TrEMBL record, chain A:
UniProtKB keywords: GTP-binding, Lipoprotein, Magnesium, Metal-binding, Myristate, Nucleotide-binding
Matching Pfam families: Arf
Protein name (record): ADP-ribosylation factor-like protein 2
Xref: PROSITE patterns: ARF (PS51417)
Domain of life: Eukaryota
Binding annotation for GTP: 23-30, 69, 125-128
Metal-binding as UniProt keyword: yes
Record's keyword annotation contains GTP-binding: yes
Alphabetical list of NCBIfam families matching this protein: small_GTP
Automatic annotation (TrEMBL), chain B:
Annotated organism of origin: Diversispora epigaea
Annotated protein name in UniProt: Uncharacterized protein
Ranges: HEAT repeats: 387-424
Domain spans labelled Tubulin-folding cofactor D ARM repeats: 315-566
Matching PANTHER family: BETA-TUBULIN COFACTOR D, TUBULIN-SPECIFIC CHAPERONE D
Residues annotated as signal peptide: none
All copies of domain Tubulin-folding cofactor D C-terminal, residue ranges: 927-1110
Sorted UniProt keywords: Chaperone
Source species, domain of life: Eukaryota
Gene Ontology molecular function, alphabetical: beta-tubulin binding; GTPase activator activity
GO biological process: microtubule cytoskeleton organization; post-chaperonin tubulin folding pathway; tubulin complex assembly
Length: 184, 1220
């Protein structure tokens, strides 16, 4: 194996990004993905297993894993952690009741050493709903500023209107792409 | 039978000009999707038949062939994968569910659930889809493909039990089994307690459950498979066993089992299967879960001690190194390196321009500070040391894959180590570099090091560097090693090794670009940039040149600190450095324009390239120095030449050769730069004298010893350059030079002779030659015959006669031309014949004519000219053959080339002098065209091409005054319509050529020659040639009019021309045999029979054939027999005459001829005689078929004689001697 084939492999690998979409149930994870993929979002039911979507974004191939967020499923999240370049954490901004829950799960997730170095995008979803918390409130509630182990960004959005989804995706892909070598 | 030989043309240096065909998208997508439904729909089609089966199989192969070319760029398939995979998977699901395999399984006693008769037999149709799926996985990688598979809870049991029910031994079903194992590995990622999915599980049992027991058992079974299922099983096992719920219960057991097997099992498939599964498990699993099992698994690493039979198995070794790495990674926590973000952008494009695009998230909502978790008090487990040891050792392994795996492992592990420990690894790598090196005169000698080790170490350095683990402080230590590795080249006998080391060194340089900030690399930029440029341009291997240019480009793109970086990467890119000649001679000059690189490049050529083991490299190096002289003459004069002069007498043959060539080339370039200004000669007199003396100072033994060839050639090249430079030399030195040149001229090697001629040409041009010297040449003697035993030696001198400038010594011209003519002729005594000599004579004619040029008529008399032309026509008839095949073709080619030069030259001279009678008469011109036309339909494609090209050139040549055609020839319109000016004619393609050229026959002027050419081709030996030429000819003849309208070409004229050929080439088998073949065809197709008997004499034709039948050549006799048989259908008289001939051939002295004649006669008679049932006919048939024609002739004669009355012939009067 010579340098030319090594480079071909490296270039090819650098074009492929693995993302994990997590968050509490009903947060809108599946809806976001379907919206990004241009699919119908009216027939979505809670995810009882996991979905894998392959998306094209700015020349990168994104392999996106969307795992159900129901409590019984959460303990299986760890089965999907391998070689994850980025985590997209989706929050139902209108679900004020479960912000504590949300914070706890996120904290636990970030402990995971296999996610060390992964970029973290937080989608403050469902901004279209009345009573949705603004991103800066969620930032406080989830104590995001205490996170120093990951690059992170929070973006308010709505999966239903599609608003601001691309901004978030642009950031996470860009952040991952600007690393000098990928997670192995 | 003779073979058609081609003259090999040398085509070095282009071997490497390959560029990978790359596409931008999946071009065959629509084709793929038009075929795929046929296979999908076949599943529902119950009207089975074999034809459909074949058709579907064909479609499967077609589909595979559409995607297979994307092996190198499989991601191009990505946009289509979903549409490819999903419909197939949907069908799989329906198919699988229709079997209800789990019911089958549950209803049965578990003992016989693997029994053969209970197996599911898959249909061929479904197998085809599995095969297609397997290919998709193979090309794009199973990981990508499997993402499109379904993975619902309800998929698990049906799919699993279906796999269970398949016949594991069915060798046409392995693709299905592999795909199913991979599929299961996805399904079992479902986020549920698998035990709750198991229909057989009951709550009372412990944590184990039947489904998992079985799945692991089945996976273990397939882990031992000899085929692809082994890999599938390893993937499935790793997925299952790294689920936390399953790991808790099953992992330790599995590891225990695996370790036991690894220790004892002798089956290579089992061992690789298990090792694959272990590598996958320790990669996928969670560290915390795996840690406790490491102790159990640890002994696997010493597999080779327990199980020595695998010591030489590359795959096993590679997996052990990989496993060591995985273990290491389990022991160590991952670390985040914040600097990963600080080295600019991963995408080169962004760095080189377009920086406008910024993220649009509110910057306040972004956190990009990263705290690296440093807990240095974390203890490093002692096993790590052992693992690093294994990996370091792996770097020296003889197998590339092992070294590569070890290098990657070291990179990954070092990344998790504290800085000091990672730096220890770097220290060890340096030690490996210096292993077996030694100092000689203060220079580090590498001749004893292992290229494997250097390759492995380079890879490891690169892996560490690109992860930022090679600290800037270490750079100044590592760069000298890298520079050495970039030029690593160890002589081993007649070649050298090290290309892989140089390639890996490029990887190191590439990784520097990724890991360091420009200011860190700045102190080393000059050295790195220079080394990379030199390797990009002057490496012997194409892949190394390309690797180096890629590394250079990465550095320019990321760091931008290489001098003139952008200019260089646009000059020396992947494609331009692909061709070695181009890299050496063109690109080098473009880069050396930059001062920063110039001297390093020149120094590389003078110190390294000129001693390269490969002669071609030394030659190119010398040529490159020639070109670079233009950029820095002073450096050449002051540094390079003084350095090279002593090397010209070096004891090392390669160096001596390289230095002689290089000095010559530089000096030639020097004189060309100075042009008419000769002041340099005085200015540099001492240096010039040293150079002039070089040839003199070569010890005589170098010219006589074994292997002197190389030195003599180098010396002659050297002399040729100096002579072209009009080097100031004494007559003594000149005498010496001539002696050396003559030495090479008398050697047998033709390339050497050409070199000698090149030198001689320059010497004669610049320094002249005296008559007495010419007369010393051995061939200037009319007693040439007595010297011909030296023929191989003569042939160089024949060329030498060509380069003499006869305008300087006109008195020698005739003498020399006569000698050349003599040597151009076929000699009576075969032994004296030498085709190369004859060919060279014509080459010399060409050169003489060119050199005399405008003053041709001043120095050459008409009678000499006539002699030369006449000789050329004789050369065109040279059809001699030897073991090498049609060697006459060389002579024909050389004669044509000569005519191609002399004819236009003479025509122009004639026109300049209209008062005089032209030397090139119309008659002569017509003859030249006729001969060229004949050669242009020849059987050897090279000859056709040569003749064709000259023909068109002459046809369209214009006279000097512009307007008129140079050659005023008859039939011009027809010729121009056959050979249109702007059309490219493929002379090598018989299919295109013959239908085009057949129209020539309409021109009476060239008919004889053209038809002769056609006939020879039609009776030739090459399948496609015969097919196209004979069918063209037959078709043409059959369409010729039969009436004798004046001005049109008729069939009888055609036949008369054939007769003419017969007479012209009487008993020349080369022409006559093909002619007989053609006659046979014409008779068989009843073409000749149509001729008006008043306009053609068949009797004459018969007489010609009869004459030819007096031969002992069986092939020819066979032809004659067939023609006689054909002639029986012409008329009564000829029938009888032919039959007499045939009946006498029936008792020919060769049994084979008798048999052939009997067969032919039988066929002819049964086909032509209407009254088949007649008594006579039956008797004739009986005699012809039931006689053993191998019997003795006297006996056969009696039988044969019965045939005369039966055929209505009078018994001839036999001479008594033949009937005894
Ligand atoms: N109004 C509003 N509703 C949304 C938005 N995004 C998702 N929803 C709704 O929220 C509900 C849950 O969405 P899902 O996409 O199924 O949520 P999920 O995170 O995938 O849930 P699980 O699969 O159970 O983990 C659905 O009824 C969606 O229509 C949004 O931006 N605005
Ligand atoms: Mg969902």
């Amino acid at each position: 194996m010579g340098l030319l084939s090594i480079l071909r492999n490296i270039r090819q690998k650098e074009k492929e990004i693995r993302l994990l979409v997590l968050g509490l149930d009903n947060a809108g994870k599946t809806t976001i993905l379907k919206r990004l993929n241009g699919e119908d979002i009216n027939t979505i039911s809670p995810t009882l297993g996991f979905n894998i979507k392959t998306l094209e974004h700015n020349g990168f191939t994104l392999h996106v894993y969307d795992v159900g967020g129901q409590k019984s499923i959460r303990s299986y999240w760890r089965n999907y952690f391998e070689q994850t370049d980025g985590v997209i954490w989706v929050i139902d901004s209108a679900d004020r009741m479960r912000m504590e829950d949300c914070k706890r799960e996120l904290k636990a997730l970030l402990q995971e050493e296999r996610l060390a170095g992964a970029s973290l995008l937080l989608f403050a979803n469902k901004q279209d709903l009345p009573g949705a918390l603004a991103d800066k409130h969620i930032r406080e509630k989830l104590e995001l500023d205490s996170i120093v182990t990951h690059h992170w960004a929070i973006q308010a959005c709505s999966a239903v209107t599609g608003e601001n989804l691309l901004r978030g995706m642009d950031w996470v892909v860009e952040d991952i792409a600007s690393r000098i070598y990928s997670i192995e | 039978m003779q073979m058609e030989y081609e003259i090999l043309e040398k085509n070095e240096d282009f071997e490497d000009d390959t560029c990978v065909k790359s596409s931008s998208h999946f071009e065959q997508a629509s084709e793929f999707f038009s075929y795929l439904p046929i296979l999908l729909n076949s599943i529902d089609d119950n009207t089975d038949n074999g034809e459909k089966d074949v058709e579907q199989e064909r479609i499967l192969r077609k589909l595979i062939s559409l995607i297979d070319p994307y092996q190198e760029q499989p991601y191009l398939l990505d946009p289509h994968l979903e549409n490819m995979v999903k419909p197939i998977v949907d069908l799989f699901r329906i198919y699988i569910k229709s079997f209800n395999a789990q019911d089958l399984f549950f209803s049965r006693n578990s003992k016989d659930n693997l029994a053969k008769d209970n197996k599911i037999q898959m249909s061929n149709k479904i197998k085809r889809l599995f095969t297609l799926m397997y290919y998709l996985m193979k090309i794009r990688g199973y990981k990508t493909i499997v993402k499109f598979f379904s993975h619902e809870v309800s998929d698990l049991e049906p799919t699993y039990y279906f796999l269970v029910a398949l016949d594991s031994q069915d060798y046409t079903g392995w693709e299905a089994r592999y795909v199913l194992l991979i599929w299961l590995s996805l399904i079992c990622m479902i986020p549920f307690d698998l035990k709750t999915v198991d229909s057989l599980a009951d709550d009372t049992e412990g944590k184990k459950f039947p489904l998992m027991d079985h799945m692991i058992q089945l996976s273990k079974y397939y882990l031992k498979a000899t085929g692809k299922e082994r890999d599938g099983a390893a993937v499935l096992l790793s997925r299952l066993l790294t689920r936390r719920d399953i790991a808790e219960v099953y992992l330790a057991d599995y590891i225990q089992w695996a370790q036991g097997e690894v220790k004892d099992n002798k089956d290579v498939f089992t061992i690789t299967g298990i090792l694959t599964s272990l590598c996958a498990i320790y990669k996928l699993g969670q560290r915390q879960t795996l840690l406790p099992t490491l102790e159990i698994a640890w002994p696997c690493l010493s597999l080779l001690e327990d199980n020595k039979i695998f010591a030489n198995n590359t795959l096993v070794r590679k997996m052990l190194v990989k496993l060591a790495q995985r273990f290491g990674l389990c022991y160590l926590k991952p670390k985040v390196a914040a600097w990963r973000y600080k080295r600019g952008n991963r995408s080169l494009k962004d760095n080189l321009g377009d920086n406008s695009k910024t993220t649009s998230i509110d910057p306040l909502n972004i956190n990009q500070s990263l705290r690296e978790v440093v807990d240095d008090d974390d203890e490093i487990p002692h096993q790590i040391e052992e693992i690093i040891e294994i990996l370091l050792n792996g770097l020296r392994n003889k197998d590339t894959v092992v070294r590569w795996s070890a290098a990657k492992g070291l990179g990954r592990i070092a990344q998790r180590l504290p800085q000091e420990l990672a730096d220890d690894i770097i220290g060890s790598l340096f030690e490996l570099f210096s292993e077996n090196t030694y100092k000689h005169n203060d220079v580090l000698e590498l001749s004893a090091v292992s290229d494997h080790t250097w390759h492995g170490v380079c890879l490891a350095v690169a892996e560490l560097a690109r992860r930022g683990l090679l600290l800037p402080e270490r750079l100044s230590e590592v760069i000298p090693w890298v520079s050495k590795a970039l030029k690593f080249d160890l002589k081993r006998g007649t070649h050298s090794i090290g290309a892989h080391v140089r390639d890996a060194a490029c990887y190191v340089c590439w990784s520097f670009a990724r890991a360091y900030e420009p200011k860190v690399l700045a102190p080393h930029v000059a050295e790195l940039a220079n080394s990379l440029v030199v390797v990009s341009v002057f490496d012997r291997e194409v892949n190394v040149r390309r690797a180096s240019s890629a590394a250079f480009q990465e550095n320019v793109g990321r760091l931008g600190v290489f001098p003139h970086g952008i200019d260089i990467i646009t000059t020396a890119d992947y494609f331009t450095v692909g061709n070695r000649v181009n890299a050496f001679l063109e690109i080098s000059v473009k880069i050396a324009i930059f001062e920063e690189y110039k001297h390093h490049m020149i120094d590389h050529l003078r110190t390294i390239t000129i001693s390269n083991w490969d002669k071609r490299m030394r030659e190119l190096g010398a040529k490159a120095l020639h070109n670079l002289t233009r950029l820095d003459l002073d450096y050449m004069i002051n540094i390079v030449l003084p350095y090279l002069i002593p090397l010209a007498t070096s004891p090392d043959m390669d160096t001596r050769h390289g230095a002689l060539l290089a000095i010559g080339e530089i000096c030639l370039s020097w004189s060309l730069i100075k042009g008419n200004d000769k002041s340099w000669i005085e200015e540099h007199e001492p240096l010039i004298t040293r150079i002039s003396d070089i040839i003199e100072s070569l010890p005589d033994t170098l010219f006589t010893d074994f292997g002197s060839e190389v030195t003599v050639k180098a010396a002659v090249s050297h002399i040729a350059c100096l002579a072209k430079a009009n080097w100031p030399v004494t007559s003594e030195i000149m005498g010496n030079w001539k002696w050396v040149v003559r030495d090479l001229l008398t050697r047998k090697d033709e390339i050497g002779q050409e070199m000698a001629i090149d030198a001689l040409d320059a010497i004669i041009f610049h320094y002249g030659i005296e008559k007495k010297e010419i007369l010393k040449y051995p061939f200037i003697l009319f007693h040439i015959a007595s010297l011909l035993y030296l023929s191989k030696k003569i042939l160089g001198f024949v060329l030498a006669l060509g380069v003499i400038r006869y305008d300087k010594i006109p008195e020698c011209l005739e003498l020399c031309v006569d000698s050349l003519i003599l040597s151009s002729k076929l000699q009576e005594t075969k032994m004296w014949n030498d085709p190369e000599t004859r060919r060279n004579a014509f080459t010399s004619f060409t050169v003489i004519s060119k050199n005399l040029g405008e003053s041709f008529k001043t120095f050459c008399s008409k009678s000499i000219f006539d002699k030369m032309i006449e000789a050329a026509f004789i050369g065109l008839e040279d059809y001699s053959v030897d073991l090498r095949g049609d060697i006459g073709s060389w002579i024909r080619k050389a004669s044509m080339m000569y005519l191609g030069v002399i004819c236009p030259l003479m025509a122009r001279l004639d026109q300049k002098d209209p008062k005089c009678k032209p030397w090139l008469s119309d008659e002569l011109i017509k003859k030249v065209f006729g001969e060229l036309l004949k050669q242009s339909v020849e059987r050897i494609d090279k000859i056709r091409t040569c003749a064709g090209n000259i023909l068109t050139e002459l046809l369209y040549a214009k006279s000097d005054d512009g307007g008129n055609w140079l050659f005023d020839i008859t039939g011009r319109e027809v010729l121009q319509s056959i050979l249109p000016k702007d059309e490219e004619i493929h002379w090598i393609s018989p299919l295109e050529l013959y239908p085009r050229m057949i129209k020539l026959l309409a021109l009476p002027e060239y008919r004889l020659e053209a038809l002769t050419g056609f006939v020879i081709a039609a009776g030739g030996l090459t399948e496609s040639l015969i097919r196209h030429s004979s069918s063209t000819l037959l078709e043409y003849a059959s369409e010729l009019p039969n009436t004798s309208t004046p001005g049109t070409f008729t069939l009888s004229e055609f036949a008369n021309t054939l007769l003419e050929i017969f007479r012209k080439y009487e008993r020349q088998d080369r022409v006559v045999i093909p002619l007989l073949e053609v006659l046979d065809l014409l008779l068989e197709t009843e073409t000749l029979q149509k001729i008006d008997p008043n306009s053609f004499s068949f009797e004459d034709l018969f007489e010609c054939v009869k004459k030819e039948a007096r031969t002992r050549e069986i092939r020819k006799l066979d032809c004659c027999t067939r023609v006689f048989c054909g002639m029986t259908t012409l008329n009564e008289k000829l029938r009888n005459r032919s039959l007499y001939q045939l009946l006498s051939l029936l008792v020919h002295s060769f049994p084979k001829v008798r048999r052939l004649t009997a067969d032919q006669l039988y066929l002819t008679l049964t086909a032509s005689i209407e009254d088949e049932e007649s008594e006579e006919m039956l008797q004739i048939e009986d005699i012809l078929t039931n006689t053993d024609w191998n019997n003795p002739v006297p006996q056969l004669k009696e039988i044969r004689n019965q045939l005369y009355p039966l055929l209505g012939l009078n018994l001839p009067v036999f001479r008594s001697s033949t009937t005894s």
